[in-house]
Amino acid sequence: MIGINAHDFLEVDRELSDEERAIRDAVRDYAGAELLPHVADWFDAGTLPDPRGLAKGLGKLGVFGMHLTGYGCAGTNAVSYGLACRELEAVDSGLRSFVSVQGSLAMTAVHRYGSPEQKDEWLPRMATGDALGCFGLTEPDSGSDPGSMRTRARRDGDDWVLDGTKMWITNGSVADVAIVWAATDEGIRGFLVPTSTPGFSANVIHKKLSLRASITSELVLDGVRLPGDAILPGAEGLKAPLSCLSEARYGIVWGVAGAARACLTASIDYAKHRVQFDRPIAGFQLTQAKLADMLVDVNHAMMTALRIGRLKDEGLATHAHVSFGKLANVRAAQRVAATARSIHGANGITLEYPVMRHMVNLETVATYEGTAEVHALTLGRALTGLDAFR
User: For the Acyl-CoA dehydrogenase/oxidase N-terminal domain, which residue ranges apply (predicted)?
Assistant: First the structure.
């Protein structure tokens, strides 16, 4: 059994096609060479020092909106996109978020609900990383209940005027365009807001203890005047932004499996080299029991991600399937990261090792794009037909 692939113990990746393996390897190689050597410093600094440069590199790699078709997007299947998320989050959750917000949220909103003119204007540049987007749904008092948003859009002649605040917006201060969701007299609608528009501002949120290799902002809209054609014509009601969130949540299902894999790999290596009581701690029963539990969680997460990906590619995945994946895989990744931290002992709290970084990042991932409670109630509704949200 020596030399087994611990992070793919059940050989889940054997189920991949040649094209899927090629995409997996391309993203893994890029992430290992261009991102991993720097991510601890970025995390320590609490920012991404060159988001434009990062975007250009990722755009050249082809991961922005890679699951979309046309407009310079790669048009891959859902499993390939998931694999890319897994390899990026194996480096850091903030990097997967950078790609997810661009592709699964902002680009998907334009691709799915935008006019032909909006698609032509924004999607090709966003696919290459020449333009960055963000997604403004969450508000200071409206997280799990986006329907209670206070941001308003009112008509003024042929224009729209937007007022409100959005919170916890990834890429907000570096974006060229914000997809902003607002309440109108006709219901919730989406708007394309160029960030250079007068009245729009973005304030970076500092002093974060999690997802530090990421830029998080507050968006303020103070009398932002937009032309009538700034509205996303196909987006009517709350189902539109929630459908985009489901795409991003799907990426999380895969991404956290990558974070868990990184923690397991680091723990095996550390345990085999850390000597206590005259032998490697990997030889102690308690350590082996921890590693065994981690192995099970990592490989269960991989199987869950692949199964939901296959269902998605067959057109059979529902939002409840995605909730199942996010709930199960985030919990598994959190268990793995916490156990990895214990195996590393005092060294586990330093950025010399990745485990504490992954552990605190997963605290954010567990909360955003649907808390564990929200996904549990989504599954409860699917099981019983009864809505327990209100």
Answer: 17-130
